[in-house]
Amino acid sequence: MNENPSMNQASREASVVTPEHVMLRFQTAGLGSRAAAQLIDTVILFLVNLTVFIVIGIVIFGRKDNFFLDADNYAFAIGLFLIFVLNFGYFLFLEALWSGQTVGKRWMGIRVIRDNGQPATFLSSTIRNLFRIIDGLPSGYFLGALVSFFHPRDKRIGDLVAGTIVVVEGGGRTGLFQKNKRKKAESLASFQEPLLLTESQKQSFTREDWVLLSTFMTRQATLSEDKKLELGRQLASMLQKKLDYKEEHAVSGEPLLFLQQLYRTLEREWTLGK
């Protein structure tokens, strides 16, 4: 994907144009949704840390012998190391392995992606989370929040360095509003029979293709009929060639129907666990 520099700063939307000349608009996640996601993750980490501290206390202070014995020192050191790994690794590994989301981000319906619209990588997630230390200065993520507030794409310092952006899934509202919107799009597709695709066709369908398809499905209600049909034809043609779908006349004649059927066919596979 190639990034389009144009962006509506008033509505906080970033535009990305794919090589197939399909434009996607992502609504960036503002301070409110990001702060709420951070609060949820912080509560989870607090409970985990509290549990670790309790276990360490039981191991160390539950012993009748001296605290300064080597076994107790090792237990204390291991506990501190475990706490560090949990607090740093929570954001790093969840974002890298859970398609740019933590528990808080998933609950709020937001996601970390790269500037070109592709999913966040392990490297980009590592970089943005290393800079949490700087974003957290002097306390309470003040510096990160300040930079995000004035940046046209709601980026904190870690996002600027890592080349990432936090967006609202499907371009809609966050949280329950976004989930309701996604369910509405899925309900439209549920009336359509799924396509019969071979395993090789399914394997040729990538995550980037799913992002294109699911974004179109969730945003089509906000498009005019002409714009929806125009984008639908472009996307249907591109996916038809990608899948080597033989019934080309059906795709060109009813592109929106084809996209709904394709969404219906692949939704369970691509939304499993999300």
From TrEMBL:
PANTHER family: SLR0254 PROTEIN. The chain crosses the membrane at residues 43-62, 74-98. One of its GO terms (cellular component) is membrane. The keyword DNA-binding does not apply. This is RDD domain-containing protein. Residues 28-163 form the RDD domain. InterPro entries: RDD (IPR010432). The keyword Transmembrane applies. It is a multi-pass membrane protein. Pfam families: RDD. Signal peptide: none annotated. It is found in: Membrane. Its main location: membrane. Keywords: Membrane, Transmembrane, Transmembrane helix.
